[in-house]
Please model this.
Amino acid sequence: MFRAALRLSVSGARSLTRSRPQYTASVAARSYSHGKQETDEEFDARWVTYFNKPDIDAWELRKGMNTLIGYDLVPEPKILEAALRACRRLNDLASAIRILEAVKDKSGPHKEIYPYVLQELQPTLNELGIPTPEELGINKA
Amino acid sequence: MLATRVFRLVGNRTLSTSICLRGGHGVAKVEDYTLPAYFDRRESPLPDIKFVQQLSPEQKSLKEKEKGSWAALSKEEKIALYRISFKESFAEMDKGTGEWKSVVAGIFFFIGFTGLVVLWQRKYVYGDVPHTFDAEYKQKEVQRMLDMRINPVEGFSAKWDYENNAWKK
Model:
């Protein structure tokens, strides 16, 4: 949590490599002294596949999200899109909103990440009818 | 009744835990702390259980409506669905408590109380100061020090004007 916040500036929004070079991380979530390092694309693809499982169940969604949030990175919009669609398959709107809140919280002091993610997810949000926490007013205590 | 409770935890998975009866003594009671609990945590956004376990009829019908298109839900219904699953939003769980104000107030209070205790002690506990603190004694002491030329170069006596019998201006 605090460790993640401190290191966020180094390996921060990992997969925003194309538009923001200063956040590029060359290491994946696990660091081996030898053996192949997983690339950012492989990491993203793995997680997208995880959430795209057609018969994903509620436990797997929760486990996946909690694990993903535990990593020292803000997930790519495509992973989040797959997670939101998984929420739709599970008929769980509350979790979808919670995921958006978690992304904003994960960005920490980097305030530009959340609007970018929302911008990328806008088509999916409109399609599925998922409101943002700001629209519901729950982003204020 | 214990069987249904265990079944609800395990959900739709196969009931792998069987309830054993040993020696006719019956089944161990399931303690509350062994069941999954609800936590609002930043690092674990989706807790193990929903916040509201017993749904009212309106909430049940709302859950049915959730199976349809989410765009058809009103803003209040979406908030209601959120509140069924979660107790506090991220903003609410992260906000400060203002506890520091109580702490600072307590600190000032006890410092003040200590001050009162010190004043009381001065009046009622401590005896008189030694006679060497009397003004008359002090005057004689200063005169003696000047007569002895204490620190005549840069210190005490250096500040006394011996010609005019006064302190130097």
Q: What stands out?
A: Confidence is low (pLDDT under 50) at residues 1-13, 15-28 of chain A. The first helix of chain A runs from residue 2 to 11. Residues 28 and 38 of chain A are 6 Å apart (CA to CA).
